[in-house]
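Hello K.,

You asked for the raw outputs rather than the summary table, so here they are, unedited. I folded two proteins back to back in the same session to keep the settings identical. This is the first:
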Amino acid sequence: MSDNKYLDEYSEDSFWTKTRNFAQKAGYDVLEKALRLYYSATDDDTPKWAKTTMFAALGYFISPIDAIPDLTPVVGFSDDLGVLVAAAAAVVMHVKAEHGEKATEKLDSWFNKQSTSTEKDSEK
């Protein structure tokens, strides 16, 4: 156990359960930040200090007990977004373009979005 209760909240299973179950409610922007951090944190190139920051932020996102309960209409995920953005700012040099691309791919599949090139290909 660590000194950071939110770091202790993190588990891969809990992360994927939360993102899948709350995808529509949390919204694209919140999940995009969470997934970018997840893919960055699971990259072998990311240093341990940055992974700790990322996993702590993801632990906060997963935690059912935070500043604003996630079930609160409209603002329920605003605190989660703030924590994810702050963590991303602290570790920005370790978030690669490929992490963003993976996050976008995952979200597009969850939100049934297609990229422009896919739409053009399907029109042919």
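The second followed immediately with the same parameters:
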Amino acid sequence: MNAKVKSIFNHDQQLAPVSKVDEFGRVKSVTINNDEHSVVAQAAHITPCQVGDTVLLTHTAQGFIVTGLIASEDQAPAALIKNSQGHITIEAQQSISLQTAKGTIEVFADGTIVLEGRDITANSEQDLTLAGWPIRLN
């Protein structure tokens, strides 16, 4: 007797806790009904996960695919990102930061912009305008 089993669960989608991640925070396995199941893929735009996080899974013929990370109760939703014909806008209520090991750009709701880095360069093919009062150099 042969039988094809598409899913051992009642639905194709379900929530499960993460049991293993790789060095990049990609989900490698989840725990369902006290059994560990491997994950074959995960959607591209998912925040790096940690063991214990809850993810939304889709069960396919190839295996489990992580399609979402469930936010914790104390976690704010992701920033609003809009793509208007190639112009990307990121909106946040309080502030936005772009950060690397040695540099940061922060934009605050009150209009303050802070640039921090080892070397900050401004290149312009035309006049470079700095407006404000006073302008402090060193």
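Residues 79 and 92 are 6 Å apart (CA to CA).

Happy to rerun anything if the numbers look odd on your end.

Regards,
P.
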